Amino acid sequence: MDDKGFESLNMIPFIDIMLVLLTIVLTTSSFIATGRIAVNLPEASRQQAELQESWVIEIDAQGQLFRDGEALSLEGLEGRVAGLEKDTAFLLRADKALALQRFIDVVDLLKQKGFARIAVETVAAG
């Protein structure tokens, strides 16, 4: 038997595998970043800056509430916010086709619970 070592190591298959893994990671990370509920935001002349570390509540066109992609009822939202500190910031992402009453119900619930830092996400007009 010949115990001759490798004279050279072919790196091309290794590079191919690494590029495929990199492509998979980049593709899945872009899906994770945009994994929000589809909400058609209303327009405003000035776009408000997003609150840092805010509690995001999304409301779709049918009036369904979402928190971290999980569907909630108004009562479920009330239970979720019950234990939060009163200075917690809320960011509402409501679809522009949403009935105004549903939006008011959510804001009213937050106000009744003593939360004052409530912002509405919009897109810049134009």
UniProtKB/TrEMBL annotation:
InterPro entries: ExbD. Keywords: Cell inner membrane, Cell membrane, Membrane, Protein transport, Transmembrane, Transmembrane helix, Transport. One of its GO terms (molecular function) is transmembrane transporter activity. Signal peptide: none annotated. It holds the Pfam family ExbD. GO terms for biological process: protein transport. It is a single-pass type II membrane protein. GO terms for cellular component: plasma membrane. It is found in: Cell inner membrane; Cell membrane. Its main location: membrane. The chain crosses the membrane at residues 12-39. The accessory proteins ExbB and ExbD seem to form a complex with TonB. PANTHER family: BIOPOLYMER TRANSPORT PROTEIN EXBD, EXBD MEMBRANE COMPONENT OF PMF-DRIVEN MACROMOLECULE IMPORT SYSTEM. Involved in the TonB-dependent energy-dependent transport of various receptor-bound substrates. Belongs to the ExbD/TolR family. This is Biopolymer transporter ExbD.
